[in-house]
Specification:
The chain has five helices and nine strands. It is α+β, with helices and mostly antiparallel strands and 167 residues long. The termini are far apart. Residues 22-27 have low confidence and may be disordered.
Length: 167
């Protein structure tokens, strides 16, 4: 390679880098890592597609779980898609203390007693819009089954483990 082509090669590589890794994505990952370092007990969990700053917490009732996470600058973790849900499932693989296949997630029923929404942005959960859970059941929370890999209804008054998430 001749030296007069080197600047062009560098510019092409830089352009490719900026195209493949847009600023928003680089900034979000950097901000996430900084937030994770600031919060004691939190660590980065990731797979090939997703990075999350999480802290695993032993079982408690859902209302206490929300308070616990908010006191630490976070929220009960949302696992909205299969890639995110795999992070939770992978955490439990091969753990001898694994007693609870279920864990609370940040998806609960609103005061209208009809709609389940994610706690981070109140985006409705389409599965429960298409097949609503009857309002008289008293099931206002949800859990993620890390064994069967499904989201399902849960009573808010039972003790389940959960993850706190910082963004």
């Amino acid at each position: 390679m001749s030296y007069h082509r080197l600047p062009i090669t560098i510019l092409l590589l830089a352009a490719l880098f900026w195209k493949v890794f847009p600023f928003e994505k680089r900034y979000t990952v950097t901000r996430l890592m900084a937030a994770c370092k600031r919060n004691k007990g939190f660590e980065i969990f990731n797979n090939s597609y997703v990075k999350k700053c999480l802290q695993y917490v032993l079982p408690m009732k859902y209302a206490k779980a929300k308070e616990y996470c908010q006191a630490r600058g976070g929220m009960v973790a949302t696992f909205k898609n299969k890639m995110e849900q795999q992070i939770a499932a992978d955490f439990f693989k091969g753990r001898p203390d694994y007693e609870h296949p279920l864990l609370y997630i940040g998806l609960d029923r609103l005061d209208d007693l009809k709609t389940f929404k994610w706690i981070d942005n109140e985006e409705p959960y389409p599965e429960y819009i298409e097949k609503p859970i009857p309002t008289n059941v008293g099931v206002d929370c949800t859990s993620y089954d890390t064994f069967d890999l499904i989201i399902g209804p849960a009573f808010c008054t039972i003790n389940l483990p959960f993850f706190c998430e910082v963004r």
